[in-house]
Structure formats: structure tokens, C-alpha cells
Write a structure and sequence with these properties.
This protein is an all-beta fold and 316 residues long. It is built from no helices and 26 strands. The chain is rod-shaped.
Length: 316
């Protein structure tokens, strides 16, 4: 971001009034990419909203004839306009957010913060507003008018050129898309640079550069990856979560009947079935005999369950 260094003091009054004032102009010009307007006209500037926009810079090209009339003209910025801004209107009500005398330069810059303070300093030919003009206070109206008497009538027909440039944040954004497959209700936690993310669908802006993403869950395998963020851009990152898939293999003799959590197993030998982590119950019937046992399944493990038969002989 460019920085300006103070070379001389300017006569400047910059303020924001809470009370509404009447705004009058000869005509209203609505800025597209750039506009030309005259003395006592109103130039309307809207804000193209973006999460990366820290502010806007108004860039004025001033008539050379004004250079010899120092401190004779001033620019005023109004915000919080009470009604829709249209070319056919010439009277509005709003708040006076800035007033400054035109410097004796061919180009003048006015930097307006829309959130927080701008990391820019005022200098000769450049004004930086200390107070923000919030997004909901746009559009703004700009008026240039004489503030001294004795100005030649030939100057009153001179025109000013205005264009607007965005002042962008040095940060970037991450748009994260996590695919959990059919398990839409199962929870997971997201960490960026080892810090928890409260809302993965609305991740705060990140500094430009490389970052580390980690996703943890009781239901899915942990994911760790690195991603890059560019200033003023959104990085799209898609992650597919893989469920934990513990399996169990059964080996029971023919003629037996086996039940897992009350559900009958169709085959008894060499069967590999997916099973959820947690506690389960296996029951095996052989004739009138029944054997049951509880067991705990951990994440992503293989379990082999078999029935061990033996004959016990006791001698008295």
C-alpha cells in the first residue's frame, strides 16, 4: 500500500457532523468509472462492496488555472444521504463528513476509510479522513465550490475530473468446502494455523502467504494440508473427509447362528463387515448353547472374532 510523507501543512478541516445539513447543487453527476463535473455541481460516488475493501481513494484532476488562486476553492463530502441519488435532483439532506481547501496541485487525492483506520499518511495534495464513512452511509456526494470573493468569472466554468480507486486489504480469504459424504450430521472441527475456527463457512480474512489447515473429528480421519492465500483474492479449497472404517471378520463353525447387536449374520466364516466405533455385542448359538460377549471397536482397526470350543475333563 502506498504511503505519503508530509512535506508541508495544508489548511484542512475534516469532520463528521451528526446533525443533518441541507445539500444543494446545480446538478447531480453519478460516477460510473469516472466523471466530469463543474463548480457547485454534486458528484455522487457509490461503494462497490467487497470484503477486501478497506477504503476508497478519490482522485481529482484540477484545472491548471486554479493553481494561482490558492485557498480559494474547497471540497466538501457528504454522507448518509436521506433519499435516492438521481441526476434530476439538486437538493438533498445528509451529514458533512469532510471539508478541505483545494491545494495548489494538478492532482488531489482524498482517501476515505470504510472500516478501521487506513495505514496511509496525509501529505501535500493528499487528504486522509480520520473517521470512517461506513458502508451503509454510501452513496456520498462531493461538491467543489468557491470560498473566496473576487474569483474571475472565467474560472466558474472550469470542470473537474474524478475517478475512484479501491484501497484493498493486504489480506485474502478462504472459502472452505468440506464434503462429508452421506454423513451430513456428523461433526468436525476446523483449525487454521493451530487456532480453532468457530464458523468454517465464514472464516475471517487471513494474511497473505501460506497457512496450515487441520480437520479433526470423532467420525472421520484427520486431515492436514497447506494452502496459499493471495492479498485481495479468495482461495477455494475443497476437502473430502474419509470416515473411520473399522472392520470385523467372523469365523464360526457350521451349524452355528451368530448375531451382532441383535442382527443375524448371514454368513459365518471369512465375513468382513464394516462396523461403527463403540461398544457392540456378539452372540453365538450352537444348538441349545449360547455364548455372548461385549467388545469395543476403536477407529480404523481390524477385529477377528472366532468361537473357541474345548472339552474340559475333571477328575475326582
Amino acid at each position: 500500500m502506498k504511503k505519503h510523507f508530509v512535506s508541508m501543512a495544508l489548511f484542512l478541516i475534516s469532520f463528521s457532523t451528526l446533525s443533518a445539513v441541507s445539500i444543494r447543487g446545480n446538478s447531480t453527476h453519478i460516477l460510473d468509472k469516472e466523471i466530469t463535473f463543474g463548480l457547485n455541481d454534486l458528484a455522487a460516488v457509490n461503494l462497490e462492496d467487497s470484503i477486501f475493501t478497506e477504503g476508497i481513494e478519490l482522485i481529482f484532476t484540477l484545472p491548471e488555472e486554479l493553481l494561482q488562486y490558492r485557498d480559494s476553492f474547497a471540497v466538501t463530502i457528504y454522507s448518509g444521504i436521506n433519499t435516492d441519488v438521481t441526476p434530476d435532483k439538486t437538493v438533498y439532506t445528509g451529514r458533512k463528513s469532510f471539508f478541505g481547501v483545494l491545494p495548489a496541485v494538478k492532482k488531489m487525492f482524498i482517501d476515505i476509510p470504510v472500516k478501521g483506520k487506513l495505514d496511509i499518511s496525509s501529505s501535500f495534495g493528499t487528504y486522509v479522513l480520520k473517521d470512517t464513512i461506513p458502508r451503509d452511509a454510501f452513496p456520498i456526494l462531493i461538491k467543489i465550490e468557491p470560498v473566496m470573493k473576487g474569483i474571475p468569472s472565467s474560472l466558474l466554468s472550469k470542470v473537474f475530473h474524478l475517478r475512484v480507486s479501491k484501497i484493498l486489504s493486504g489480506n485474502g480469504a478462504l472459502s472452505l468446502n468440506v464434503d462429508t459424504g452421506k454423513d451430513k450430521q456428523k461433526e468436525y472441527s476446523v483449525f487454521i494455523d493451530n487456532k480453532p475456527v468457530e464458523d468454517p463457512e465464514n472464516i475471517p480474512l487471513l494474511s497473505a502467504g501460506f497457512h496450515q489447515l487441520m480437520i479433526r473429528s470423532d467420525f472421520f480421519k484427520e486431515v492436514t494440508t497447506r494452502f496459499a492465500v493471495k492479498a485481495g483474492e479468495t482461495t477455494n479449497l475443497g476437502i473430502v473427509l474419509t470416515p473411520f472404517n473399522p472392520t470385523v471378520q467372523f469365523d464360526f463353525p457350521e451349524g452355528a447362528k451368530a448375531y451382532l447387536d441383535g442382527n443375524k449374520l448371514e454368513t459365518l466364516s471369512g465375513t468382513v463387515s464394516s462396523i461403527t466405533p463403540g461398544e457392540h455385542l456378539i452372540s453365538v448359538f450352537i444348538g441349545d448353547y449360547k455364548v455372548s460377549k461385549k467388545f469395543t471397536v476403536n477407529k480404523d482397526k481390524l477385529y477377528k472374532i472366532s468361537l473357541f470350543l474345548d472339552i474340559f475333563i475333571k477328575e475326582n
